[in-house]
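Hi again,

Forgot to attach this to my earlier email, sorry! This is the prediction with magnesium ion bound. I've pasted everything inline since the attachment limit keeps bouncing my files.
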Amino acid sequence: MGKTTVSLIKADVGSVAGHSMPHPTMLDVCKKVLKEGVSNKIIKDFYVTRVGDDIQLIMTHDKGENNKDVHKLAWNAFLKATEFAKKYHLYGAGQDLLSDAFSGNVRGMGPGSAEMEFEERKSEPIVFFMADKTEPSAYSLPLSRIFMDPFTTTGLVIDERMQKGFRFEIQDVIGHKTITLSAPEETYEILALISDTYRYAIKRIWSKDEKIGIAAVVSTDKLNVTAGKYVGKDDPVAIVRAQSGLPAVGEILQPFAFPHLVAGWMRGSHYGAWYPCSVADSTPTYFDGPPRICAIGFQICDGMLIGTEDPEKGESGVGEHIPVDYFEGSVWDVTRRESMRISRYMRGHGPFMPGTLGPEEMEYTTKPEVLKKLINRMKALE
Ligand code: F6R
Ligand code: MG
Ligand code: MG
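Structure tokens for the complex follow:
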């Protein structure tokens, strides 16, 4: 068998009511389009879900990353969902489709994408992370803990296959540059860059064990920068391969028990504590948030997704899956409570920093206009 590609492409193309959740019919419309994509042999399998107001298309195929047909399929699914959203005047209909015509790749056109190609191991567990109301660099803290911190991932110390460490591709999302650094030798340099969550984000992580290869990929399409004006936060996704020489699923999930502050809540302009929850619980209900993080798990088997559904269902079962929903259970209640306590505390600041982002990072701001209006009344200090 050749290589398998896993693509997760997402977009907010409208929701009900306000920026809350896509209409269920929009998800059905996407499923129909992707089912045709399976019939036309563009993709092998898929799973359609949503987190908050974003539609998430998980697709498996053998066409590699950035494949025109796969991206066009996703684009068409979003277009069809947009038609429904527009017809019923749903909120923000088509908001992430920044262009009228597809140009070969969804990158730079609004949707976010994370894709990885690999040789399937004997068993291939994958965790899909999907966030709402935040930006790609939100993943930098948990990913550095997962792949660099032996106090999180004991495997770095006691699994021989992990002792070589990992390579990190880091993107300067503002300057459009990229650099690859190697851990553990360059841990401090990596942290010096990615601790600036405004400018830098982790794009990819590889195992230095060549037999394993790609370990993680994050969508880093800075939507606000792409569009040149505010059109909604990125609400990024990430794909992480697990086990057998890579961090265990448990090591991958553990850092999310710390609800760190992430940027992008309410008008893309506030800090809130990341809230791990089930997909069903991902509808924003407090100040358009709090910023959510969901994690679902699938096995990959010969290019097909395997969840907890009956895989013997045959052809009709393609696209019909039941993933493991990792943040659903009661274990995460304590983090959710802590997250809400922190988010309410941050809200206590109202429009003041650090409840809000700094002026250069705010996605809605009237501050330059206010300053323009007042400039003549500003007197030099004596
Ligand atoms: C959108 C989002 C929201 C909006 C806010 C204002 O995903 O995060 O917080 O920024 O609801 O939206 P408008 O300007 O559309 O009323
Ligand atoms: Mg929205
Ligand atoms: Mg969203």
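Residues 12, 15, 19, 53, 92, 95, 232 surround magnesium ion (ligand 2) (CB under 6 Å). Residues 286 and 344 are 9 Å apart (CA to CA).

That should be everything now.

G.
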